[in-house]
Amino acid sequence: MVVGISALRHRLYHLLFEQRTRTGRRFEALCGFFALLSVCAIFIESGIGTTYHLSYDEWHAFVWLEIAFTLVFTLEYFLRLFCWPNPARYVFSFWGFIDLATILPFYVIMLWPEIGVEYLFAWRAMRVIRVLRILKLLRLMPALNSFWTAIVNSRHQLILFYAFIGIVMVVSGALMYGIEGPVHGFTTLSTSVYWAIVTVTTVGYGDITPHTAAGRMVASVLILIGYSVIAIPTGIITAQMTSEFQKRRQERVCPHCKQRHHEPSAHYCNSCGTALPQHQPQ
Description:
It comes from Kluyvera genomosp. 2. By secondary structure, this protein is mainly alpha-helical.
């Protein structure tokens, strides 16, 4: 009996978490399709509900759709807990939070359908948070791991760059607060820093604009700096991603336990002892 449960957990683990197999990829695609379909239903419900004042104490088609989607994602969540070697670790992981957030709002609404007016915002937030199901589609993007690794490896350069930008924002906001003043809309230092952020990102809402020659000069400098806000982080992350892809081309994966990070001269897996492939397929 124990062997049968262990074999079942092993098969479910490869089905739910292993995307190298065709079955695993198909299952992830199916979950992604349900997530996308659920989000589309939420947007349609939002539009129709505003017109016809739909609520969850009335049993309409969108309630049944939500029940169906929630049951599917609840089953998926508990199956992932069942087959994961350390369920508590999965619960508190990023994907664990996402999976829980996709099913929790409906149960909250079902248990407390008549929430008072003072809790209306919390009630609406719990319904809107269902859109987080769209994040399930990230599992269909294997290159996301390389992108995240590139961000982690370049975190020091990015922190240094954005810290410098933050200093520039504060200094520029202070300058504009002194140059323009409340007469031209720069009523507080925080408002001036907000204007600097909007300007350096080249958004330019137009709600606050400089009127003096000195203020326009500061604004011109910020607009020129704004181009580096996009160019420099992009270059840093691109360089790290290129390096990461080169490492993955040379990295060998154990065909049995999928263990990575082997020495270049290793012939056997350092985890299970299986012979390693000499050339990892692209």
